[in-house]
């Protein structure tokens, strides 16, 4: 069923897109009705979008979530269909402006057989459909009936298209189209539905559209997913929950947020209306929930007794009050328990029903409940009066544990979901009554509470909690990765089969939540949130992981896809295989090259056609690859004698005429064009030893300087043609870990090269041939030197790392940071610049971990992380969030989501 719906939706979108492509845009003076006039008031779900293909581009190219959904039946077809549609529309120059002009609607209606759907759009007035009809009949072989409706068969699926009063309606069922046209005729549409219009006016401005939910009819869509026998209960709860919701859609790479409002019918008695006189309450109970809580539902009250009176009114409206009162009488007779005297008086602001992720417990024993009490002494007294008398109370870590004769009173007090609490054990912690079907659960809750490790302190939940409201009246939370058993317990056979088949998919979603918070008597603020985390583990925010064929030592490079604008990852393993990987962790291609890459990965536009190539070098050759991994023209270019340092790629005049400078082991410096050919007129004279440094380039007083350092420490400055302009008498130290940095200023006297010897003594060689040495204390060997701006004063600072720590000093020799290490030698050191701060990254191959240290010397939240190689930090998905890409010692590539400290 789900597969067919997905298939139909995207084929219909393609048909609708053809309407846009071949229609001639004309001016219209006559006002035209909105497509809302053709949408019935009984519609269950309506999705509005005024730029669907911008939304599609973000979904397809910049979200990890869509990549996961493509693993499900039907979604791969949807992906390829929309890609084809996107390509088709880009051939027409007007499509983007056209789609900005009018809103489109995807509508789901309930029927006796489940659901039907259709796609609607309004055209400007006075369109001529002649050319469009030709496209339908000739290109798509559509057949037109006597009523003017077109039928089209695509991949053995029938679709119907109908035009009426500047509306186009597409659907796989004629019934949907007939209903839309009838609605257009009668006027009983969403455009005339006052309650729909009430929420419609609250919709915000968003690029990704809005979702409207009609609670009166939503059950038909999800009813076939509910266990047999529970369908009527599901229908009662959903159809009498509220009236309409509108939610603005916001998407990032690994999350979807829906925010908006839900309204009530003031003439009806709906469940959410039981909170109409209740202010939203905070989630204080979260400090009690154990860290392995998989799901929960939280109610927040400002006046519980007032809520209970409204709840009884709702029960009466839904014909449930009689059974409710019958159970009250049953408790009085069987247990001498009076609800209004023994339970209701001590309840205060919060109630929670939770479910544990604990494989040692059976399904029913994973449930627990938390109820806040206004009077701990009264609650204890009343609960003891209905406890099992023969059972000796147990004291665990100074908390008494008792067992109740029944838990039915709590379903009466809070709703039928509390029926999961059957004959519970209970204890009281900090004014919260804790109930659980299994005593071990109480022990776990007590331990977590005393250890200061409840759910609210768990890193994964804390991350999620940052994106939800701090207060609410109704709060539903589910960690799908830990709740498969819970979902299957109330699902139909169809849902159970889906979960069993797609457990890997489900476990890649870290959290789903729904919240409602009272805004006014008949209006509630609503928040829905979906968080994806495919390698979900405690305190590690990994978007995805990918195993390379073998280990790697390379710092991943982030490159741009010139077609989609998406960022991608380029990396090489230790067997000389290079990979291009999408920002969702999919290997786009891989190939072998002749050796290890020793340079950075740069992108250049060789042909000046807005298509980028990747350039880099190994010891043996210079490579230039297109985005498919193919060699460009005359590349790779073999390096005579072998390269001794990374290449430098220069575009002196910013005209696309690149120069590729290749230091060699023979002391030569090759100068190649961007076609791989030797540059004519190059006058460089071979030096006495191999060039050790990458060529460093600067312009001072309108003169170019190409700075080189050879393995004897001699420093030269050359012109563009290779002639010597500077020849230093002072010599710089050269060793295996040498790094050379050029700080350029307005004169030779104020510009310098900086490096450090193997003992950590810094050498600054000014370009007027003066050498200044800086000693920053006792630096161990081996060490790593970095010259970069840490304190963000636009001056490079001096950073040294050895087995004792990472330290940095300013240009004025003031200590900026000092982070101690426990006698472990770093293998790489890098600087990262963010918008408002900077940080130093340290990798430890021996420990297979990485650190990120902020500019004050404090460790970044959640570090250390797994992965001992050099790492990159980038906004991979263009969503304002930073990702860290690193490999571990086993060749596993991790992409972490950094804590937002920028």
UniProtKB/TrEMBL annotation:
InterPro entries: DUF3352, Quinoprotein_ADH-like_sf, WD40/YVTN_repeat-like_dom_sf. This is DUF3352 domain-containing protein. It comes from Salibacter halophilus. Keywords: Membrane, Transmembrane, Transmembrane helix. The chain crosses the membrane at residues 5-23.
């Amino acid at each position: 069923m789900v597969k067919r719906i997905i298939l139909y939706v995207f084929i219909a979108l393609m048909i609708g897109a053809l309407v846009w492509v071949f229609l001639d845009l004309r001016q219209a003076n006559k006002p035209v009705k909105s497509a809302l006039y053709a949408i019935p008031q009984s519609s269950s779900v309506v999705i509005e979008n005024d730029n669907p293909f911008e939304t599609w581009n973000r979904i397809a190219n910049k979200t990890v979530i869509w990549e996961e959904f493509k693993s499900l039946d039907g979604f791969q077809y949807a992906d390829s269909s929309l890609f084809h549609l996107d390509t088709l529309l880009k051939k027409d120059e007007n499509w983007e402006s056209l789609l900005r002009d009018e809103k489109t609607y995807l509508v789901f209606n309930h029927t006796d057989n489940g659901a039907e759907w259709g796609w609607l759009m309004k055209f400007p007035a006075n369109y001529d459909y002649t050319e469009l009809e030709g496209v339908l009949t000739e290109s798509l072989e559509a057949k037109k009936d006597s009523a003017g409706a077109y039928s089209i068969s695509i991949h053995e699926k029938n679709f119907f298209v109908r035009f009426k009063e500047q509306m186009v309606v597409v659907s796989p069922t004629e019934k949907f189209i007939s209903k839309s046209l009838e609605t257009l005729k009668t006027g009983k549409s969403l455009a005339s539905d006052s309650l729909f219009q009430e929420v419609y006016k609250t919709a915000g401005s968003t690029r990704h559209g809005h979702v409207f939910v009609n609670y009166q009819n939503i059950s038909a869509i999800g009813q076939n997913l509910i266990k047999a026998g529970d369908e009527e209960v599901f229908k009662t709860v959903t159809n009498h929950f509220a009236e309409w919701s509108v939610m603005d859609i916001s998407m990032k790479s690994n999350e979807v947020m829906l925010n908006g409002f839900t309204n009530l019918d003031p003439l009806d008695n709906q469940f959410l209306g039981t909170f109409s006189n209740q202010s939203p309450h905070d989630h204080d109970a979260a400090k009690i929930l154990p860290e392995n809580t998989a799901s929960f539902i939280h109610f927040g009250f400002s006046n519980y007794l007032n809520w209970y009176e409204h709840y009884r009114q709702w029960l009466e409206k839904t014909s449930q009050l009689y059974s409710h009162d019958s159970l009250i009488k049953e408790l009085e007779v069987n247990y001498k328990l009076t609800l209004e005297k023994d339970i209701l008086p001590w309840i205060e602001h919060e109630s929670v029903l939770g479910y544990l992720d604990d494989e040692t417990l059976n399904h029913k024993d994973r449930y627990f409940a938390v109820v806040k009490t206004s009077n701990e002494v009264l609650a204890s007294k009343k609960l003891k009066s209905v406890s099992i008398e023969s059972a000796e109370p147990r004291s665990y870590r100074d908390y008494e544990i008792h067992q109740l004769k029944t838990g039915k009173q709590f379903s009466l007090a809070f709703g039928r979901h509390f029926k999961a609490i059957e004959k519970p054990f209970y204890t009281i912690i900090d004014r919260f009554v804790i109930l659980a079907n299994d005593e071990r659960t109480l022990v776990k809750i007590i331990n977590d509470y005393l250890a200061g490790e409840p759910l609210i302190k768990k890193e994964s939940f804390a991350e999620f909690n940052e994106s939800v409201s701090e207060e609410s009246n109704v709060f539903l939370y589910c960690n799908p990765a830990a709740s498969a058993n819970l979902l299957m317990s109330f699902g139909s056979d169809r849902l159970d089969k889906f979960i069993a088949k797609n457990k890997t998919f489900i476990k890649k979603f870290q959290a789903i939540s729904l919240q409602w918070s009272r805004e006014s008597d008949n209006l509630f603020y609503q928040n829905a949130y979906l968080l994806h985390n495919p390698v979900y583990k405690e305190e590690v925010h990994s978007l995805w992981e990918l195993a390379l064929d073998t280990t790697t030592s390379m710092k991943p490079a982030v490159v741009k896809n010139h077609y989609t604008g998406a960022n991608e990852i380029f990396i090489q393993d230790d067997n000389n295989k290079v990979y291009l990987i999408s920002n969702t962790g999919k290997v786009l291609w891989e190939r072998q090259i002749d050796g290890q890459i020793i340079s950075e990965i740069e992108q250049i536009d060789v042909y000046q056609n807005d298509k980028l190539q990747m350039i880099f070098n190994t010891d043996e050759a210079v490579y230039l690859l297109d985005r498919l991994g193919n060699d460009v023209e005359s590349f790779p270019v073999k390096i005579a004698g072998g390269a001794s340092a990374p290449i430098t790629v220069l575009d002196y005049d910013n005209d696309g005429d690149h120069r590729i400078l290749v230091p060699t082991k023979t002391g030569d410096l090759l100068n190649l064009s961007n076609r791989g050919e030797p540059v004519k007129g190059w006058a460089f004279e071979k030096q006495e030893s191999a060039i050790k440094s990458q060529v460093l380039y600067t312009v001072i007083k309108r003169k170019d300087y190409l700075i080189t350092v050879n393995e004897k420490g001699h420093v030269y400055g050359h012109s563009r043609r290779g002639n010597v302009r500077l020849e230093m008498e002072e010599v710089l130290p050269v060793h295996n870990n040498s790094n050379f940095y050029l700080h350029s200023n307005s004169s030779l006297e104020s510009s310098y090269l900086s490096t450090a010897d193997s003992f950590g003594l810094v050498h600054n060689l000014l370009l007027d041939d003066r050498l200044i040495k800086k000693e920053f204390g006792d630096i161990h060997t081996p060490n790593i030197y970095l010259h970069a701006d840490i304190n963000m004063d636009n001056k490079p600072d001096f950073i040294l790392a050895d087995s004792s720590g990472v330290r940095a000093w300013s240009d004025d020799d003031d200590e900026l940071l000092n982070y101690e290490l426990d006698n472990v030698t770093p293998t790489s050191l890098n600087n990262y610049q963010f918008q408002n701060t900077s940080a130093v990254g340290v990798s430890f191959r021996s420990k297979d971990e990485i650190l990120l240290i902020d500019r004050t010397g404090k460790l970044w939240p959640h570090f250390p992380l797994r992965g001992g190689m050099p790492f990159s930090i980038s906004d991979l998905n263009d969503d304002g969030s930073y990702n860290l890409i690193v490999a571990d010692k086993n060749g596993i590539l991790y992409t972490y989501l950094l804590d937002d400290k920028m």
